[in-house]
Write a structure and sequence with these properties.
Two copies of one chain form a homodimer. With 298 residues, chain A is of the alpha+beta class. Chain A has eight helices and 13 strands. Chain A has helices spanning 3-18, 63-80, 100-116, 172-175, 180-189, 202-213, 233-238, 251-259; strands at residues 25-27, 34-37, 42-52, 84-94, 120-128, 133-143, 158-162, 194-197, 216-220, 245-249, 265-272, 278-281, 287-289. In chain A, the strands form two sheets. Chain A has a seven-stranded mixed sheet with strand order 8-10-7-11-9-12-13, with helices on both faces. In chain A, strands 1-2-3-6-4-5 form a six-stranded mixed sheet. The radius of gyration of chain A is 19 Å and the shape is globular.
Amino acid sequence: MLISKIGEFGLIERFRKLIKLDASVIKGSGDDCAVIKFDRDNYLLLTCDMIVEGVDFTSRTDPILIGRKAVAISISDIAACGGTPRYLLASLAINRKTPVNYAERIMQGMLSLAKKYKINIVGGDLSRAEKVVLDVSMLGRVKKKDLVLRSGAKIGDIIFVTGTLGGSILGKHLKFTPRLKEAHFLVKNFSPSAMIDISDGLAQDLGHILKQSNIGARLYADLIPQSACAKNLADALYSGEDFELLFTLAPRQAKKLLAKNLAIFQPIGEIIDKKYGLRLVEKNDREITLAQEGFRHF
Amino acid sequence: MLISKIGEFGLIERFRKLIKLDASVIKGSGDDCAVIKFDRDNYLLLTCDMIVEGVDFTSRTDPILIGRKAVAISISDIAACGGTPRYLLASLAINRKTPVNYAERIMQGMLSLAKKYKINIVGGDLSRAEKVVLDVSMLGRVKKKDLVLRSGAKIGDIIFVTGTLGGSILGKHLKFTPRLKEAHFLVKNFSPSAMIDISDGLAQDLGHILKQSNIGARLYADLIPQSACAKNLADALYSGEDFELLFTLAPRQAKKLLAKNLAIFQPIGEIIDKKYGLRLVEKNDREITLAQEGFRHF
């Protein structure tokens, strides 16, 4: 049986079953970050993201944007857990016939975000490969009281997203600003019951919250904020690499957030019983079931 | 100018010049691990190692050994700093037409060492690529008093290695046991002034100690322990992937270690003034200068 048959999440599930963790691990694989005991008030957060030429960027992509993207994805993961990125390692595989300047521009892209977010680039590894592969692993910190996982959504909670969705492939995926500021605003002023960053499409990533919180969701087509580049609603629901935050708030908290009238946070639906799965109320008020799918590597 | 022209270390040097670190970083890029403040008695250690099909293993390598190797390399780095590995992340790029079993065997290889050394596999990332790329990043801990860097060797110190050198390409590079036990024995009972793991060949890795400790070294051909697979002395000096420990001890400590008669630790030379560079006393007592080189990716 080939990997393409069981898919990315099938393979991850098989891996996960084999892993044993000790009591210092609050949350292993299966959330935006791993969560590890640190001190009385804080946890450590660990995440990694690998980007590959021909999948996540092309041979003609400005290398500054390649470096930038790899770092931004990991920052987005740490933001989705309510934390602050602090250190990163970068492993780069590259062809020896590449101009030095190309490699330096990858580094410059990484540095631009590292500087902006006060992240220390503390090391890395260089290797040889035909096509560029860049893997960034990041260590961050989160106050225990600020930690948000995918698993806390409750029936009645309101579902929000930041920004707009869809069409990221036209450019945003290389230039997005990770929603760290927004995540910090949320965890300081509210208590999101669940949060994830939308990397593989709204429907699929909401599906992760549904699965891990053991609930269902109803979205409203009218409320889903489509980006100017989105072709249609399906694009906003299923295409990947938006890197927006998707989170849930208890009704009273949702009211408080809505009262602030902040355009960046838009309500798109509500959490319902698990038995309904993922539902969409279309513009004509008809309610349909959505597939919890999106971008998959295999 | 191409990367192949300035080489792996030239490129790393260019990267390093661009990086700024804050006061929480004890040691950034340029040692076996990055060293970060943790608590009163301990530092955190961070390291990553990327292995690539066609460079570090072949398409016919048993995938269990691929997973095993990626984890063993990072453990070896943490050992070289005197620390203990605790958590790892693994990013894997793989072809979708690969059998599921192949990917599972990579995971099994990683798990075998994770279990043996009580390391938690807390997450990772999957991506698509024509050839297999596996990047492991590892988080460990070291008691402040146990930390060993490449930079502390002093004139008069005795240079030691563990095990035997050379010919690793014939098999050891895929099956080596990282010298964690030996490193712990050393830092608990002695105070190594400098330590590194030999990943790119004795001459090149000793060169890192020489550069960072600002000293020179004299090796004795007669004393260098050649593995049964080593073709000759040059193989033991220059070929990569031995993953043995190379360390220095002050003369009195060296005497104490030698008195224990432990075959695993062999003295191979002494630290001398920087102006002599790296010297080798040949079997005929003639002293020559050695190039501080070995395996390089570019």
